[in-house]
Design a protein that fits this description.
The complex is a heterodimer of chains A (422) and B (312).
Chain A (H helix, E strand, L loop, with lengths): L3 E10 L4 E10 L2 E3 L8 E3 L4 E4 L1 E6 L12 H11 L1 E6 L10 H14 L3 E4 L15 H7 L4 E2 L8 H13 L4 E3 L4 H4 L4 E2 L2 H6 L3 E2 L2 H17 L3 E3 L5 H12 L4 E5 L1 H5 L21 H13 L4 E2 L8 H4 L16 H10 L5 H8 L1 H7 L14 E11 L18 E11 L2 E4 L4
Parallel strand pairs in A: 1-4, 1-5, 6-7, 7-8, 9-10, 10-13, 11-12, 13-14, 14-15
Antiparallel strand pairs in A: 1-2, 2-3, 5-16, 16-17, 17-18
Helix pairs in contact in A: 2-3, 4-7, 7-8, 8-10, 13-14
Chain B lengths: L15 H17 L14 E6 L5 H12 L3 E5 L12 H10 L4 E6 L4 H6 L5 E7 L5 H15 L6 E5 L6 H12 L3 E5 L15 E3 L2 H6 L3 E4 L15 H8 L3 H5 L6 E3 L12 H4 L6 H20 L4 H4 L1
Parallel strand pairs in B: 1-2, 1-3, 3-4, 5-6, 5-8, 6-7, 8-9
Classes of the chains: A alpha/beta (422), B alpha/beta (312).
Chain lengths: 422, 312
Amino acid sequence: MNNLTIQNGRVIDPANQVDAVRDIFVRDGKIAAEAAPDAPVLDAKGLVVTPGLIDIHVHLREPGRSDKETIETGTRCAAVGGFTTVVCMPNTSPAADNTGTIAFIRQRAAAVGSVNVFPAGAITKNIEGVELAPIGSLKRAGIVAITDDGHCVQSNEIMRRALEYAKMFKLPLMDHCQDNNLVSDGVMHEGYWSHLLGMKGWPSIGEEIIVARNIMLAELADWHVHCQHLSSAGSVRLVREARKRGVKISAEACPHHFTLTDESCKGYDTNFKMSPPLRESRDVEAILEGLADGTIEVICSDHAPHCAFEKEVEFDKAPFGILGLETELALSLALVHKKLLTLPQLVEKFTTGPARLLRLNKGALSVGADADITVIDPAREWVYDVNQTSSKSRNTPFHGWSLKGKAVTTIVGGRVVWPVKQ
Amino acid sequence: MNWTRKDLIAIQDLQPEEIVHILDTALTFEEVGQRDVKKVPALRGKTQVNLFIEPSTRTRTSFELAAHRLSADVVNITPTASSITKGETLKDTALNLQALHADIIVIRHSSAGAAKFLADRLNASVINAGDGAHEHPTQALLDAFTIRQKKGRLAGLNVTILGDILYSRVARSNIHLLTKLGARVTLAGPSTLVPRVFEQLGCRVCYDIEEAIADADVINLLRIQHERQRQTMFPSIGEYAAIFGLTKERFARTKPDALIMHPGPINRGVEIDSDLADCKRSVILQQVSNGLAVRMAVLYLCAGAQPVEEAA
């Protein structure tokens, strides 16, 4: 039986407006009002107890690229990082544009996953942006959103129809905002550093123009577009203004985009190459403001494993993307340590924010809910050693970083999934 | 001064005195080129690999001759002959060269950062012969050598670089070198190819060619590099020639002793009037000759063992 009592922790449960020291009871894998008899006790004195954290943007690479990551290893990273639920992107091989692939992902996750996995389905067939994927069937197969992540639907007509069609199934559309004409073969932020380094620029306008389009289409269709991994100040401003008008538009931010700038690319280290790229300090500031004022409701990792041999190449030839699940919480807690966000505000970005967006029955410690719980030591100082990672890949810019704050226990359905008992 | 570098990757990395030291060393090797026997034993027994992943004739020939004159053994790897076309990574190519005990690797590559990538991983001396749009340090050195030869100095001179700055590694290396040694740099060309951000590197940016060359002591013309460009940067070669080409009329209004330079290959009738390319104030071929001396100096300093007097 999955029974547990977590005592004396500071419980932060934004869904229930709780921020107080109290005990949490788990009975049969669910949150309960009273302790189960003989339930094991976990002492959380001095620790923070939150609903299990949710990351709505990860690449588990299975099926197709299990040399980079698998559902087993990727969800283990999630557990290590304090996440109990992840949403995996559909740019697998084959793409998650068919019910068979969705079924495969869900079966693998149920069999070998450490945490809950909700698949996102493709907007278009083979993520090519040309023909709609069978969105209704994908919904029946269990997807929680549609996205062509990694690619951006360039056709405004396809995007419009996808949105109108997805509305029928109450499926939010998540978009990787990138205009291919403007971005072309850009590999890093277009600015002082790209010019100095002689690398092709991925300009901010390449993201902003699609964010603006998405706002207009969301308004037209009166349906929800979620802008993935915002990287530029202009995008934050656009989303903020549109939300004030009541447009169904939302946004997420990744830790690397509010922690690093394009200057990091000066050594041509491909661990600083991701899409959208690292931008300037004014963009970092804008993202932080967006997180603080609620414009950006979600923090996610864009966990994107790549093999070492793929990344250890010329900068412009390397694939975009970095690991994220294991460093995400600590890099985000830095915002709390710097007093840019309160701890409850941060917990919202990982719980109620993503759960509300994707209509997940997660992210709350309500009685009767699945006992997905994360126990965090916000003051724990540690050094990230990528050689100890649970991922199959090693592509992180944060190796050797001194971090503060860590998930110390991750519980899914009342079962401790991390640390794993030896 | 004491030269301590094994690699030459970027002018941006160099101290002004290091640049001057290379130029001074090149003077010694210039003299070698004028002898009957144009060879010194400075790199005898050393193996140099010219790893040219991107096509080049001028620079590769220059590095090859420079190595011969220093008595090194030279192997050339061209893009089609390299295993990179068979899917080998640059890292594996490099490790193979290391396994063959190459002492010097001269690399030309279409990716910015490729030379640094090798230098970080190999014991051999790595000399950057052009990495994407990043740097082409020996070109800037030979340009500086030529200017110093003709003008006696670099400090205080007005140097105008005209053309495709955005995609030009020659421009970047020249900007770093000239500003480090006290010259004033003006950049000119179509606004799409000469973004204002270059002002942050200490340059003047100008979109009027007549204004850009009026006070120039040196006019360095760059080729429009179709192969490196997105296709949207300017209307046509004809329009470029009309708006930014160095014509006789325009050149007549410059300082009487202004020099014309060009890293080659030149496109007659595009960036430069054909007659001007051959005129007395054009030092384009001098640049080619000086390139040899400069490259000998660079190879010698990075990979040679003996003091220069003994070697020469």
